[in-house]
Structure formats: structure tokens, C-alpha cells
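Before a colleague's protein record goes any further, I have to sign it off. What it holds is a sequence and that sequence's fold in C-alpha cell form. Would you go through it and say whether the fold makes sense for this chain? The record follows directly below this note.
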Amino acid sequence: MNAIALRHDWTRDEVAALMALPLPELLFRAQTIHRAHHDPLNIEIATLLSIKTGGCPEDCAYCPQSAAFDTGVAAGKLMPLDAVLDAARAARASGASRFCMGAAWRSPKERDIDAVCAMVEGVRALGLETCATLGMLTRPQAQRLRDAGLDYYNHNLDTSPEFYGDIISTRTYADRLETLAHVRDAGIAVCCGGIVGLGESDADRAGLIATLASLPAHPESVPVNALVRVAGTPLAEAPPVDPLDLVRVIAAARITMPKSVVRLSAGRETMTDEAQALCFLAGANSIFYGERLLTTANPGADRDRALLARLGMRAGQS
């Protein structure tokens, strides 16, 4: 088999076998494929802003914004347009090329879509790529966002189909796949990944990657998150994520989805520089700039710039 060939028929067993390889062999395969499709020294920079925080009716066991858990995150209103555009200008000045807007909704109402479309148009006018994560979308809502100029839509699968019900009960895996189909059909690029550290097995991690890599089109962006444990959520006492487990998941994502941008997302605040460097070697080529990811901590831009400089890497677009 040509390891660099683009495939959409990856099985869980194949992905599990990849992830079980000795780490030097796994990294070699991932880096070989990475270099065939990407600049190995380039890291795409994105910024994520919570435009509507807290009060979400979903019960995702990891999420501090769920109304089901007492995490100290208060429900807020949708930010005004001017405040969002000010944040986008600051992100651009810090070197971000993509501006992502997240709202704690199960699904947006039509008036919400009106407001977000205005934000998308304003952010695009600043010369930034746009991304939004707003929960489940109908087909017409996806089309409206595309008409406004939305470049990317984030809607994560989180984990494998088999383990999903242990983490979330308020929407199904099929619901998530349906939203992804609406986004893809509207012509919006898909941002879709998952979380490591939810209590899932190695087989579940392989199942997540196999599901993503077997979609009709691979997600253009694949965020890989390490669980950020938040007091008040059901996963507050989950064991910390082994950084090498995260490296293996990233490498599997890179091998199975060669052209996708793989983003090292949540959880970097507690990772060492060496662990992050291994993630880049495994094929991660995007990070979020900024001190917060929605409601959780993230390394400051100065720390990230210093790390990239030490590694001889650079911030840029994908």
C-alpha cells in the first residue's frame, strides 16, 4: 500500500495498528507524509473567541459551559459586533491568520444567525479567515453562513461512536454527522476532531480517527484536544493525559488524513515545550494563539513565539 495515497476507507484495526507502532517508527511515517503535503516548518496560527459563553443545555461531561454542571461559568449574552471586531483586530496584530468564534448553543436561532453573519462579514473584511462553532446547524443555516463568507465550521465528533454515549446524552453521534454534512454541502470547509483523555480506550481513539478519515471528504482542519479538567464537571478527576498518547493520536491523524491541517488545540497550557515539539514532529501544524480557549487557559502568544523560535519554526498560514 502506498502510505501517502489519500484513502477514505480506514478501519479501526488499521488505525489501532498504526498507533501501536514503536514511537520512532510512527513518527518517521507521520513526518514523511507530513513533508509530502505540508511545509514542515510552518505552524498555522488561529485565535478562538467565545462570543456567547455559558448556559449551554447540552451535558457534555467535559464542558464547563454546560448548564448541567456547577463550574462557576455564568451564562452570558452574545457579544456585540464592535467588541468581536476589536478582538479580531487584536488577533490579527498578534499574527493570527484565522479567527474562530464559538457560542455555547445547542443550535442557533435565526436571530443568532443574523448576528453571526454580520460578524463573519466584518472579520473577513479585516483580511482574516473565519471559523465558527455554534452547535448543530440546519441546511439553510449552513447556507446562510456560507453566503456571509464563513470559511470554516467547527463541529467535533469528540470520541468514537461506541464511547460517545458515555460522554454526552443530549445529542447523538448521528446528529453531529448530519451537521457536518450540512456544512460540507453548503461549501464550508470542515473543522472536526476530538478529545483525548475522556476515559476512552486506545480502541476508541483509533475509532475516532478511523471515523474522521473515512468521511466522504477529510476535514480540512482536525483539532486534537487534550482534556482540560474543570472542577464541577463529571471528568474533573479524570487521569491526566499522557503526552505520548496525544502524540500517537496526532501521528495517526496525520497519516490517515495527509492533506488536513492538524491542530494541537486544548491542553497546551500544561504541556511542556518538549511535548509540544513532539506533537509538531508527529504532524501537528496549527495552534491557537491567545491566553484563553473559550473558558480554559492557553499559553500566551509570547510563550508560543518563543517556542517556535527555539524550534526554528515559524507562524504562518496553512
Notes: The chain is about 40% helix and 15% strand. Residues 25 and 221 are 25 Å apart (CA to CA). The longest strand covers residues 42-52.
